[in-house]
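User: Show me an example of a complex going from sequences to structure tokens.

Assistant: Sure. Here are the input components:
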Amino acid sequence: MNLFRTLIIIFLFQFKAYALIEVDITRGNLNPLPIAVSPLSSDKDSLDNFEKILKKKDIGSEISIIVESNLKQTGLFNPLEKDAFLQKPEIAHLKPRFEDWALIKAQALITGKVEIIDEKLRVEFRLWDVLAAKEMLALAFTTVPTNWRRVGHILSDKIYERLTGEKGYFDTRIIYVAEEGPKTKRIKKLAIMDQDGFNLKYLTLGNELVLTPRFNPTNQMVTYLSYFRNLPRVYLLDIETGEQEVVGDFPGMTFAPRFSPDGKKIIMSFAMDGNSDIYTMDLENRVVERITNYPSIDTSPSYSPDGKHIAFNSDRSKYQQIYVMRSDGSNVKRISFGNGLYGTPVWSPRGDLIAFTKLHKGKFYIGVMRTDGSGERLLTENYYQEAPSWSPNGRVLIFYRETKTDEKGEGFSAKLWSIDLTGYNERQVLTKTDASDPSWSSLLSN
Amino acid sequence: MYKNIAISTCFHLLIIILATLSLPFLIKKPIELPPIVSIELIQITDKTNIPFAPKAKKIIEKIKKKEERVISEQAPPKKIKKEKPDAVPLPDKKVEKVKKIEEKKQNPEKIETEIKQVSEFEKKELFDPNNIAALIDKSKENIAETTKITKKITQSQDRNIEPRGLSLNEEDALKAQIFGCWSIPLGLPYNESLLVRIKLQLKPDGTVIKSEILDHAKMNKPGQGFYKVLAESALRAIRLCQPLRVPTTGYDRWKDLQLNFDASEMLGG
């Protein structure tokens, strides 16, 4: 009996020794992370050099403002007011007094130094975890001084990646169609700018109508639609050299072009006699391949990031819906089954989602669904909006939105907007003129 | 003819006997439903933390004083108690500290000191399967320090009355606090497992002595960069929330605590 009791006791004693209370935390807040971006410090010589070379006095502050606004527009960070900072930038960069930063509720801190060495700009920065009182990241860049804005973007990318676990999208550019003039006589030009709206350049003069520019994911090439001998045709443009050419000698109209993920092919629609099908063209050997062959309008093709599948929209089931097929055109499957019309499918660079435009009961929606069509989520609704394009990390969509024309024929506008996958962080992307058909480049620093 | 009937009867009887033995519902009486007893739901923490009415408090204090006197009169065991720990290489200081804290707090558990008067014999009688925890501690004391038996038993019985883990209220309070502190990094891939388990060692006031990520190896795995971000966010939440909202009593229960941070529910789909 005693032995039996001892055994029970030993067993239970063991149990007790390891019985650890576990508490499951399944909820948190989605509030933006409070972050302090201390201005990057500079010595006196460097300040003089900035003035001489860049005609700007305090590049350190300017870079910190770029970082701050980049992080703020993600909706994931809350940059704190600089007036509340207790520690000087140059001292904070050496060794932050974490208590001071914790006092103003900062959870992360960015400090840095910028100087000119041998006529080159050297930027050094550190990211600190204020609560853990330790350094999370430290990097230095050297570049030509005129590149200082890009340094701000690269820095933002590194910070974003370290704090969120996914790549950033700040060192990128956006190409779009800049529009001017009354609705009936619009002048449309190809325009390119940094993702924050700076460094705007026009790539075409506005003599011809341009539509649907798309970036090559691997380099600085752009494909777009313009008119050639009064027929819409797909063009190819090298941003660096300004050279452009018509893609393929098709007897009819070609439209809705897009690059393959490796940048070696262009996929597009070719229409003749009321029927449109999907074709690819190899940019190296100019071989054209027909992908779909169906008596319906098949258009807006978009490759999956691995290049194995293609999403497109077709009205083969009477109404326009989204379909997915293998890249050779086999195994066509319809994936959208909701009410309304679905169009412009775009495969996410992460490969997990397909963004689309939906028209239902006179309203336009931008939404996402999984690649098998499940989990449809409508992110934003408006009078007219379309053409979503993914940020290179697959977190944000940029699209354009048009406003209604009033009775006098006024009030029309077209603007670029962005929305993240949560659907909460919707922002207008400021452009100098009206804008449509945006396309987001991949990261320039890659 | 008779032989066949006899054989048949035998077999029938055998089947009936087997059925009676093996199919218990045949011998069971129809289940009588017990009368429904209405109960009043009382939240455990509320009950244990309810401050005593002034009158009751006075009475309890009186009882306590009496008990103390009784204990001091029964001096011999106490003396040995003080001497023994020095000889035994156990973390006695800690034990004493905890006890001091517990003694300082005039909480309702102290009423249990009445049980101290129960003799060894009676204690044995008290044993029942639901009271195993008491035995465990008793055995522990038997091995380590023989003199504290009575006092320890009362404590373990206390523990037996209390819930083993945190009560729902206690858990909710802690959860609610951490929910407010945990900023979930929105960039996490929602189709991956987003669970981070963190083991904490706490002080009685809820401040963290030590925090340890249990799946530490996962942190630096290629392609698992998000895990590091998630783990860091969880640690930030703990630091931000310090001191944690832990129960005022039963430090032994929760001095080691494991928090399982799971972001998949928030970010899923």
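The lines above are the inputs; the final block is the predicted structure for all two components together. Residues 46-51, 71-95, 97-129, 132-163 of chain B have pLDDT under 50 and may be disordered.
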